[in-house]
């Protein structure tokens, strides 16, 4: 979410420790948690980190709406970034679903042995 850094660079300086910081942390949290979860040994742990990433997507989307309401972000930019966040959220949800199915299939295979 490099776009978040570009957008928040233009925010008023009095937002530096508020909305700017919050948005940047949420944006960084998304790929960071995906990477950390991927490095874990178990699918259950991976799903937990993906869930945190999904929560960060929701946070960032909400913060963008607030930034738009404060006239820091144009409507066009809001829609563009919200769509990107929505796309990321859908990919995360799909991956979480696949991990759930894979672990369910694995559990059934193990119990049938």
What does this structure look like?
With 113 residues, this protein is mainly α. It has one domain: 23S rRNA-intervening sequence (de novo design (two linked rop proteins), Up-down Bundle), CATH 1.20.1440. Helix content is 84%, strand content 0%. Helix 2 packs antiparallel against helix 3 and helix 3 runs antiparallel to helix 4. The longest helix is centred in the last third of the chain and has 38 residues. It is elongated and about 60 Å long. 25% of the residues are buried.
Just give the CATH class.
Mainly Alpha
User: What name does the CATH topology carry?
Assistant: de novo design (two linked rop proteins)
Oligomer: single chain
Please, what is the average pLDDT? 92
Unreliable residue runs: none
Radius of gyration: 17 Å
Distance between the termini: 45 Å
Query: What percentage of the residues does DSSP assign to strands (E)?
Result: under 5%
Brief description of this entry?
This protein has about 110 residues and is mostly helical.
Annotation keywords:
mainly alpha, de novo design (two linked rop proteins), 113 residues, 84% helix, single chain, 4 helices
How would the blueprint of this fold be written?
Elements: H1 2-8, H2 16-38, H3 43-69, H4 75-112
């Amino acid at each position: 979410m490099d776009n978040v850094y570009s957008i928040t660079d233009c925010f008023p300086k009095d937002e530096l420790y508020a909305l700017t910081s919050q948005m940047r942390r949420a944006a960084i949290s998304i790929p960071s948690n995906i990477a950390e979860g991927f490095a874990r040994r178990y699918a259950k742990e991976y799903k937990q980190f993906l869930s945190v990433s999904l929560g960060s997507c929701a946070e960032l989307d909400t913060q963008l709406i607030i930034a738009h309401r404060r006239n820091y972000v144009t409507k066009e930019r809001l829609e563009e970034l919200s769509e990107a966040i929505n796309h990321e959220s859908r990919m995360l949800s799909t991956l979480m679903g696949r991990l759930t199915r894979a672990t369910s299939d694995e559990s059934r295979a193990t119990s049938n042995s």
